[in-house]
Amino acid sequence: MTAQALAFAMVSISLSACAQLLMKMGMMNVPTSGSSGTELIFKVSTNPLILGGFLTYGIGAVLWLKVLSQTELSMAYPFVSLGFVLVAILSWLVLGEHLSVGRVVGIALVVAGVVIVGKT
């Protein structure tokens, strides 16, 4: 993987992780119980955090297309798993979610796997 493709991949993955955080924060303000499908669609489609999450995710997806144009899929796709790592860390830092020992070990294994794939 070239340095440029790696940079695009990391930005794309970071944007996708941030998008997940924005959408989670948006859904924390959307009461879902007792809402009809139409009401829920309206609440979701008018929530700025959720809309920002969709926009951020879309930009990340466009950047990911650049990565795919420059890199073998079997080399690029394992990097997507770093999104899980970023989401876990951001959820802990921003939302105060708990990171158990098992999650930390899992995160370390994911990172190790991406390093191994990236070096071969």
Q: How would you sum up this structure, described in words?
A:
It is a single chain. With 120 residues, the chain is mainly α. It has one domain. 78% of the residues lie in helices and 0% in strands. The protein contains 6 helices and no strands. It has helices spanning 3-27, 37-45, 48-70, 73-76, 82-95, 101-119. Helix 1 runs antiparallel to helix 3, helix 1 packs across helix 5 and helix 5 runs antiparallel to helix 6 (101-119). The protein is flat and about 50 Å long. 19% of the residues are buried.
Structural key phrases:
single chain, 120 residues, mainly alpha, 6 helices, flat
Summarize the structure.
The protein is an all-alpha fold and 120 residues long. It contains 6 helices and no strands. Helix 1 runs antiparallel to helix 3 (48-70), helix 1 packs across helix 5 and helix 5 runs antiparallel to helix 6 (101-119).
